[in-house]
Design a protein that fits this description.
This protein is an all-alpha fold. It contains 54 helices and no strands. Among the domains are: about 70 residues, Serine Threonine Protein Phosphatase 5, Tetratricopeptide repeat, CATH 1.25.40.10; about 50 residues, no CATH class; about 80 residues, Serine Threonine Protein Phosphatase 5, Tetratricopeptide repeat. About 75% of the residues lie in helices and about 0% in strands. Helix 50 runs antiparallel to helix 51.
């Protein structure tokens, strides 16, 4: 068998070698004539193996590569053919087409003519092909200049002369004449089918899309790999909403050119059109990685991020194309809204003020700007824009309503006239009806509001709206039972009413009928999965409802159904946290990092959950990232300050507070933060001076009270601190404020009241290490045996916590369980050998079991670190008495303030000294 294969190979070799270069050239030409370019390439390569300088073979090999879309190889072979002296009239036109297809060609007036003597026919072809290409690229002036040059040759029977004439007719709004001309030319088309391709383009331009698609199909059947034609065809399919076919075409191109910017931009556009916004941003970013200034990719990326409510990234992309957008363009208006939302109000106003005058097309721009300025507090500038709106000729119930609402928001009472006119045009227009209702409510015109709601019911007794309106008015008037009944009537009129279900769920929660609330919220979210208020209420439900796993299961199911909606993933993570499954929530957020890392809402949720989980370094990293994306995000600035403080990076926190004060000069709450951190670093007087100049009506009261408590506690003014703690607890008796209040009571020896506060907090909010520890401390003086039991439980849960062990040892000593106290104190010292308070506890244990020498040594070490600690000094003085060191004991006691404990030791000293 091997012998047979060898003979066959030799025969083939001898056969292959029997043909001359000229014969290979002939068979190559024959293959090209039959459009069998792969065979042609093989034959021509064989010819060139024998005669590398055979110019015609090089030329034909280059054209074969061209028609199989191997453009770089085609250019190389054609260039070599030119160097070998082959006719430039045949080569230059191919080189031009290759440069056009590769997108590497800038405008030149005389392509190929400087180095070569070309015939008029070749020059006409070059100018026509290049001119048409420039027009497609948007360089219309340059393209027309080349086409007009063609006309100067007056070779009316030349194919390309006629093609140039068709281009000129098309650019002169003579589309029908141009189509007639190219249709005739395509009957005797050239090898590139230039006339057919231009016919397809002209039909598309004339919006005769079916005919255009037919012509593109014909062209791509002959030239399936013509990249520019494929891209034009894709654009046509998108324009005709044939998205599936367009995506098939794009996917074919992506398989060949996976990183090509324009193809990825089309893929992004297709994803955007079917609301796959995350996918759209992914493909747009691939395009922009190679071509950062690509208009379409930035447009799609910006709008997709906007749809995902990632405003900072939307702004980042849209600002790059702002100069190419007319003010009336929807995207220009979106960008203006983003500027206001992100705190770039001055930039937005400057851009709008550059417009010399406003027209009806600017209605949305002015209304959005006015609304944003009102929210930011710049009512004067808002009023200026609203006055411009009032000058516009406005019709249509929607625009009238929008203008009416804006007018009312700046106390322009003529806004009511706009709303009434809107209702005259459309009596059932919901937004106008609601606007009138809320205008009455906002102005405390409750009787008018109720009359309006009743009129809605009378006019449309079978509609839900009137009953919803009446329910809202009755809620405002604090008639919850009647309001609830009205919402139930609304639900009777429309069993699918989202407004009725949501309002009724409020009463379900208040009545602790959590199952009913859950059912209504689920029905809302099944229909509108991004209903923020319903989703927020459902997440909160998981904190109070016993069947909280149902909440988690539902939101997880919703997330699977809508994987692109980041808000659902964040709701799942927060619900995990509410179910004490913080690790699962944080793991989910970590997994989202790749796709959502620039989403502000995601970063805020991740940062806050990390902070609550005690991962302050991660919280610091995430808050820094938010500030990098949106410098004027106040919550992120405050979060960063708190994260630094939790890590005892107090100087860094103070520096960040100064940065924040520069960004938000009118925010007095930041002064409170500054005072808090000054207290942390021991600058008590400076902190007190800051608090003294604060206008208390400009700050959050609870924030101010917390810092005032801390200030007075540091100054040992515990009675004053108690006044602030009582007020804080009265405003907000949450877990943190309960702990603070009880702690201040403990310092004032009001242990029984402190214990009541702690027990209430534990019933309401559940157990925590801080509350359990405080409860145990309070019990030491009231019920030491109970205190020992509490600490035993805490030690079982926190076996390596030196603070818990130390407190347990102290409680055991107070309960006269001295051996237990000694054993536990020894464990605590091993974990924290340098802590003076822990040495004091161990020394006291040694004192109580009669090991006075050991106690003496430890008390001396503790006093080196805390020389003014009265409790340690008392214990040390007692130890010295038992060691008969009476004079030294007397010296120590004389330095201490009068107290019952001191007097008891003086009596003991006197007794032992006698």
């Amino acid at each position: 068998m091997k012998r047979l294969l060898l003979i066959t190979s030799l025969l083939l070799f001898s056969c292959n070698n029997s043909k001359s270069a000229e014969e290979y050239l002939l068979t190559g030409q024959s293959a090209i004539a039959n459009k069998n370019y792969k065979i042609a390439v093989i034959e021509l390569k064989n010819a060139l193996l024998q005669r590398p300088k055979l110019a015609e073979a090089r030329f034909l090999l280059g054209t074969s590569y061209f028609f199989t879309e191997q453009l770089p190889a085609a250019r190389k072979e054609l260039q070599r053919a030119l160097e070998l002296g082959f006719d430039p009239n045949k080569i230059i036109t191919f080189l031009l087409r290759i440069d056009i297809l590769l997108g590497k060609l800038e405008f030149v007036e005389n392509y190929g003519q400087e180095d070569h003597a070309l015939t008029p026919e070749t020059i006409i072809e070059l100018h026509t092909v290049f001119g048409g290409s420039l027009i497609i690229r948007g360089q219309i002036t340059e393209g027309l200049s080349l086409l007009h040059k063609v006309m100067s040759f007056e070779q009316k029977h030349d194919f390309f002369y006629q093609l140039a004439k068709a281009w000129l007719a098309a650019t002169n709004d003579q589309i029908d004449e141009a189509i007639k001309l190219t249709s005739t030319l395509s009957e005797a088309d050239n090898e590139f089918n230039d006339a057919l391709l231009l016919t397809a383009r002209l039909y598309a331009f004339a919006k005769q899309y079916e005919l255009a698609a037919t012509k593109y199909d014909q062209f791509l059947t002959v030239h399936p790999n013509n990249f520019i034609a494929q891209m034009s065809y894709i654009e046509l399919l998108i324009a005709t909403n044939d998205l599936n076919k367009a995506e098939n075409q794009v996917d074919k191109l992506l398989a060949l050119y996976p990183r090509y910017p324009s193809i990825n931009a089309y893929k992004a556009e297709l994803a955007f059109l079917v609301h796959r916004f995350q996918s759209a941003t992914d493909y747009a970013n691939i395009a922009l990685a190679t071509q950062p200034s690509l208009f379409k990719a930035n447009l799609i990326a910006g709008l997709s991020y906007y749809q995902q409510q990632n405003d900072e990234m939307a702004y980042h992309h849209l600002i790059l194309i702002e100069d190419y957008l007319p003010p009336s363009h929807l995207v220009f208006q979106v960008l203006s809204s983003l500027k206001f939302q992100l705190g770039y109000s001055a930039e937005a106003v400057t851009k709008i003020d550059q417009l010399e005058k406003f027209s009806a097309a600017d209605f949305r721009l002015l209304s959005n700007a006015s609304s944003a300025l009102i929210k930011s507090g710049d009512r004067d500038k808002a009023q200026e824009y609203i006055e411009q709106l009032n000058k516009l000729e406005v019709s249509g119930h929607q625009k009238l309503t929008q203008r009416g609402v804006l007018k009312l928001s700046v106390n322009d009472k003529t806004g009511i006239d706009d709303l009434k006119q809107a209702l005259a045009e459309n009596p059932n227009y919901l937004k106008a009806q609601i606007a009138i209702l809320y205008n009455y409510l906002n102005n405390n015109q409750l009787s008018q509001a109720l009359s309006f709601a009743n009129a809605l019911i009378s006019n449309n007794p079978e509609e839900e709206l009137g009953y919803l309106a009446k329910g809202i008015v009755l809620q405002t008037q604090n008639y919850p039972e009647i309001a609830e009944a009205s919402f139930r009537q609304a639900l009777t009129k429309n069993p699918e009413s989202i407004g009725a279900k949501f309002n009724l769920s409020t009463y379900d929660v208040q009545n602790k009928d959590y199952q009913a609330a859950y059912q209504k919220l689920v029905e809302i979210l099944d229909k509108t999965p991004e209903h923020r208020a319903a989703l927020e209420r459902l997440v909160k439900l998981s904190t109070v409802w016993q069947d909280k796993q149902k909440v988690l299961d539902f939101i997880k199911k919703l997330r699977v159904a809508y994987p692109d909606k980041i808000i659902l993933s964040l709701a799942v993570a927060r619900t995990f946290e509410n179910l004490n499954q913080q690790d699962n929530g944080l793991k989910l957020l970590l997994n989202l990092q790749k796709t959502a890392d620039n989403n502000i809402q995601y970063l805020q949720t991740y940062a806050l959950m990390s902070y609550r989980a005690g991962d302050f370094a991660k919280a610091e990293e995430l808050f820094n990232k938010i500030i990098g994306l949106s410098a004027k995000d106040l919550k992120a600035n405050v979060g960063l300050i708190s994260s630094l403080g939790a890590q005892n990076k107090n100087q860094q926190a103070l520096a960040k507070i100064k940065n924040a004060q520069a960004l938000f000069p009118g925010n007095s709450n930041l002064v409170i933060y500054e005072a808090n951190y000054l207290l942390k670093i021991g600058e008590v007087a400076e902190a007190e001076n800051l608090l003294a100049i604060i206008k208390e009506n400009t700050v959050i009261r609870t924030l101010l009270l917390r810092v005032k408590i801390k200030l007075n506690a540091v100054k040992d003014q515990h009675q004053r601190a108690l006044e602030f703690a009582e007020e804080l607890y009265g405003i907000s008796p949450n877990l943190q404020n309960s702990f603070t209040y009880a702690q201040i009571l403990q310092r004032l020896s009001e242990n029984e009241l402190a214990l009541i506060i702690v027990n209430k907090a534990m019933v309401k909010y559940g157990s925590s290490l801080a509350l359990e520890s405080l409860k145990a401390e309070l019990n030491v003086g009231i019920d030491p045996e109970n205190s020992v039991d509490i600490y035993q439980k805490l030690v079982n849960e926190n076996p390596d916590n030196p603070v818990v062990l130390n407190n347990f040892a102290w409680a055991a000593i107070m309960a006269k369980q001295y051996e237990l106290g000694l054993e536990v104190a020894q464990k605590a010292v091993k974990l924290a050998p340098d802590q003076p308070q822990i040495k004091d506890t161990l020394a006291l244990a040694y004192l109580r079991v009669g090991q006075y020498r050991r106690a003496e040594t430890l008390f001396e070490e503790a006093l080196e670190s805390l020389p003014v600690d009265g409790d340690i000094s008392l214990h040390y003085a007692e130890t010295l008495i038992y060691l008969n060191k009476f004079e030294r004991s007397k010296e120590i006691l004389d330095k201490l303030s009068s107290s019952l404990e001191k007097q008891a030791l003086l009596n003991l000293l006197k007794k032992h000294a006698e």
